[in-house]
UniProtKB/TrEMBL annotation:
Entry keyword set: Membrane, Methyltransferase, Transferase, Transmembrane, Transmembrane helix
BP term (GO), one: methylation
Major subcellular location class: membrane
Localisation: Endomembrane system
MF annotations from Gene Ontology: methyltransferase activity
Lipid bilayer topology: Multi-pass membrane protein
Organism, as annotated: Croceicoccus pelagius
Highest rank taxon of the organism: Bacteria
Protein name: Protein-S-isoprenylcysteine methyltransferase
Classification lineage: Bacteria, Pseudomonadati, Pseudomonadota, Alphaproteobacteria, Sphingomonadales
Length: 159
């Protein structure tokens, strides 16, 4: 059961993906502090690389949310999709919101000099793949049929 109201006509995602990323980031921070994983990366490199990734991630998320809002869809994966969205940023990646979240996660980890966070990023992505994307893709295939399957063959999942 979800902590949120899950529509019956939805991908049945039970937990908000941003909280999945945030949870893994916190675990990474704890691991980082516990084991003292602080690589010697110059501040300028950390801030430029980390800040750039955060900014890029926020832009990708904003473009995806804007496209969803313009189409009349709700971006929450536990809500019903009324329209199939394949324009804008969705022509480049099937999962721009999760790509953006991963970029923000990476950027925060780098800027904070948090190797533990970087080590947790693959686990966060695997969790999103197994517990969110699989459900979403099965639902979209069921809901939109050949239209979605053609899109899935044409457009990469991440980039």
């Amino acid at each position: 059961m979800s902590i949120f109201g899950v529509d019956k006509e939805s991908a049945q995602v039970r937990f908000p993906p941003p909280l999945v990323f945030f949870g893994f980031l916190l675990i990474g921070r704890v691991i980082n502090d516990w084991f003292g994983l602080n690589p010697a990366i110059p501040d300028i490199v950390r801030w430029v690389l980390g800040g750039g990734a955060i900014l890029a991630g926020l832009v990708v998320i904003a473009l995806a949310l804007l496209r969803f809002r313009r189409s009349g869809n709700n971006p929450e994966p536990w809500k019903t999709d009324t329209v199939f969205v394949a324009e804008g940023i969705y022509r480049v990646t099937r999962n721009p919101m999760y790509l953006g979240m991963a970029l923000v996660f990476f950027g925060i980890s780098v800027a904070a000099n948090c190797l533990g966070g970087l080590l947790m990023l693959p686990l966060a992505l695997i969790s999103i793949q197994l517990f969110v994307i699989r459900r979403e893709e099965a639902w979209l295939s069921q809901r939109f049929g050949d239209t979605y399957e053609d899109y899935r063959r044409r457009v990469r999942r991440w980039i």
